[in-house]
Amino acid sequence: MERTREHASTGGPERPAARPGDTGTALELLVHGVGGTTPQEMLDDPRTVRITGDNIAAVFRRADDVDAETNPGAHRRDGPVPEAYVWCNLTSGNGTRALWLLLLPFMVVNLAHWMRPAARGRRRTVRLYGLLVRLAGLSLTVLLVAAACEVALDLAAWQCAGTRACAERHTWLGFLSPTVSDGGWWSSPGRRLALASFVPTALTVLLWYLSRRTWSDYESQQPLARDPGPEDDAGPTALGRPGFWYGRRLVARLRAAHTAAGLVTVAAAVGSAAARHDREPGGPAVLDTLGLLLEAALAACAVAVVWVVCRRGRSEHRLDKELDEHVVRRLPLVALVLLALSLLYAGWERPGWESSGRLPGDATFGAITLVQGLLVTVLAVVAHVLHRTRPDRRAVLRGLGGPAVAMLACALGGVMSGGVSQRVSDWLDGTGTSIDGPPVLLTWQASVIPPLILVLLVLSGWLAHRAWQLARAEREAVARDYPDEAQDRARTRRIAYARAMAALTDRGPRFVAVTSGVTLLLGAGALVGALTTDETPGEAARGAYPVVHGAAETAEALGSWLIGLGFILFVTWGRRAYKDAAARRTIGILWDVGTFWPRAAHPFAPPCYAERAVPDLTWRIATWTRVTGGRLVISGHSQGSVLAAAAAWQLAPATRRRVALLTYGSPLERLYGRWFPAHFGPAALGSLHREVDCWRNLYRLTDPIGGPVRLPGDRDPGVDHGPLMDPLAYGRTDLHPLPAPILGHSEYQADPSFAEERHKLLARLRPDLPAPRDEPEPPAA
Question: Which InterPro entries does this one have (predicted)?
Answer without folding.
Answer: AB_hydrolase_fold
